[in-house]
Specification:
Strand order of the largest sheet: 6-5-7-8-9-10-11-12
Helix content: 25-40%
Shape: globular
Mean pLDDT: 87
Number of helices: 7
Largest sheet: 8 strands, mixed
Order of helices and strands: EEHEEHEEEHEEEEEEHEHEHEEH
Distance between the termini: 61 Å
Length: 282
């Protein structure tokens, strides 16, 4: 047995099957997909049931048995496959293993939809190296869709390459707005008024930020305004959108690739991006 250094990690390797950075990372994304899909199996099992809810902060911020069991299954797989990596998960918080790599996990993005019986929810897992997201997986269990992206390698849905929409006419675009639980409602009121004045086709508030990024990445909608969501809501979605060709900037038009800024716009083109920037309340 010999030890190899790959992407800053020391790995055990058989001399008969040397591990290269390419095939190691391919194996890693497959493990992340397995974790997300395992969480999805649990979520599907509970969908449609009447579940007891536990409020966390405000009335719209709560967890259920489904969230907790999904998270438990996901974390078990990630901890087994990547025992040295940190994990930051919505329900458990931070498991700090002093690594430069951190998994960011939302075991059920769209809990409100899930409890109401609205089939718009997902499981989201992002992998950070420092402040940069280098891989992301979002699984939509009721649609049997799994989106993934790796830094510099494109974005995919069920293994098929996906790209943002080419639409640039405002009257034909759909724009999603998503925000955190604690926000200024006046911001959204003013934003909606301005977007309506642009005569856009559709304004969406889907209550599932992760899936919104998949809609953008696969060409279904043209822009997302992300206003102070939590990191686990957008970590995976941001890289999936970027690898599909999306433009990302913060509200001041600075390029947005790191994990720290929670106010940003993701769009399919510079024309749409400029229009959305101009619609933001000042």
């Amino acid at each position: 047995m010999m030890r190899l250094l790959v992407n800053g990690l020391t790995l055990n390797s058989s001399p008969f099957r040397p591990i290269t950075p390419a095939n190691y990372f391919h194996s890693m994304i497959e493990d992340i997909i397995t974790a997300a899909e395992k969480g999805g199996e649990i979520i599907k099992k509970y969908f449609g049931d009447i579940l007891e809810i536990e409020q966390k902060t405000v009335a719209t911020d709560f967890r259920t048995k489904a969230d907790l069991e999904s998270e438990q299954a996901i974390l078990a797989i990630l901890s087994e496959k990547f025992p040295d990596y940190n994990i930051f998960s919505e329900e458990t918080g931070l498991i700090d293993r002093q690594s430069e790599y951190t998994f960011v996990v939302d075991p059920l993005d769209g809990t409100n939809n899930f409890v109401l019986g609205i089939p718009n929810f997902s499981i989201s897992i992002g992998l950070l190296k420092g402040d940069q997201c280098i891989a992301g997986v979002i699984h939509v269990p009721l649609l049997n869709q799994t989106y993934h992206a790796e830094d510099g390698k494109g974005a995919f849905c069920n293994g098929k390459r996906i790209f943002v929409s080419e639409e640039t006419s405002l009257e034909k675009v759909a724009i999603s707005y998503t925000c955190g639980y604690i926000n200024n409602p006046q911001f959204e009121i003013e934003l909606l008024k301005k977007l309506r004045s642009l005569n856009i086709k559709r304004y969406l508030t889907n209550w599932s930020p992760a899936f919104d990024f998949c809609l953008l990445a696969s060409g279904k909608i043209e822009a997302i305004i992300n206003n102070n969501n939590e990191l686990y809501d957008y970590a995976a979605g941001k890289i999936i959108a970027r690898e599909s060709g999306a433009i990302l900037t913060d509200f001041m038009e600075a390029a947005q690739n790191d994990r720290m800024t929670s106010q940003f716009i993701a769009s399919n083109s510079q024309e749409i991006h400029n229009a959305v920037l101009g619609a933001l309340p000042k």
